[in-house]
Amino acid sequence: MMDNYKNVPQFLYGLSPAQMEMFMNDDNPYNRQSQKVTEESVSAARSYDEFGMYTLSGRHEGPASYSMGMGGSMSMGMGRGGRGYRRMRSSAPDLPSLLLDSRIIFLGMPIVPAVTELIAAQFLWLDYDDRTKPIYLYINSTGTMDENNELVASETDAYAIADFINRSKSKVYTINLSMAYGQAAMLLSLGFKGKRGVLPNSITKLHLPKVHKSGGAAIDMWIKAKELDTNTDYYLDLLSKGVGKPKEELAEFLKGPRYFRAQEAIDYGLADTILHSLDGSFKPKDLTAQLAKAQAMRQSGKRAAAGAGRWSTPTAPR
């Protein structure tokens, strides 16, 4: 090949002898790059970790790219549409990310600190992304208790989520998918009035807060008792705001746990409507008609742009 190179005019190759020499040995850029490209490196599986969760580690080496937009706002080159945040052309993300893309926050386990941290971050992002659209809070939670009625979380975690519901500029629609117990029922009642839904076979349960069982010195027991009184007062305040009943009446009513079926929850003021599959919001979309309409709009836009060129004949004034 080197002899052939010497016998051909240099302008046909566009490479100098020194540049050509780079590709004549084994350690050249082409061979180094070909060793990196394997079946594993270009497969979609590289974008998922061992647990099947989506990860960005397979997209590129090094840190994510950032760009500074107008006004000093920072946007990442990954993610979904909205405010300079473009959709990622890569493997599908995990299910929670798809729900978040539809402005859905899913509370599907007891309200432990890790859950509260995630929900708080989702509220902050969705409220920043578009405050004109509602946020949907889907609830299937036993509150701060587990299935054995044992306290597994702090009541203050639920109060933090309640604060985010109240401070959010977006309207928050709440839906009880299966069960909303204790603090989760309180969160259900704090949704936007008229948009608090329950599924036909869902259960809502109200009960006063509890504290972890503990022993020790009398001062420690006194502190626990004060903590319980404070949590109960907060709970009744928020629940009173949600159901529209005075705190005294709620305190008397909740001397024991109370269970509500779907219609009973509506009658008590915890929800507003039962969501059936025949509701208008569940009507299937005619995607073919929507696609045809979008194509027609694009074609009309192209024709309008072509007609508005600088060579177009101006219309005579009337």
TrEMBL record:
InterPro entries: ClpP (IPR001907), ClpP/crotonase-like_dom_sf (IPR029045), ClpP/TepA (IPR023562)
Region (Disordered): 298-318
Secretion signal, residue range per the UniProt entry: none
Pfam families: CLP_protease
Gene3D superfamilies listed in its UniProt record: 2-enoyl-CoA Hydratase, Chain A, domain 1 (3.90.226.10)
GO cellular component: plastid
Assembly mode: Component of the chloroplastic Clp protease core complex which consist of at least 16 proteins: CLPP4 (3 copies), CLPP5 (3 copies), CLPR4 (2 copies), ClpP1 (1 copy), CLPP6 (1 copy), CLPR2 (1 copy), CLPT1 (1 copy), CLPT2 (1 copy) and 3 copies of CLPP3 and/or CLPR1 and/or CLPR3. The core complex is organized in two heptameric rings, one containing CLPP3,4,5,6 in a 1:2:3:1 ratio and the other CLPP1 and CLPR1,2,3,4 in a 3:1:1:1:1 ratio.
Similarity comment text for this entry: Belongs to the peptidase S14 family.
Matching PANTHER family: ATP-DEPENDENT CLP PROTEASE PROTEOLYTIC SUBUNIT (PTHR10381), ATP-DEPENDENT CLP PROTEASE PROTEOLYTIC SUBUNIT-RELATED PROTEIN 1, CHLOROPLASTIC (PTHR10381:SF55)
Name of protein: ATP-dependent Clp protease proteolytic subunit
Organism: Urochloa decumbens
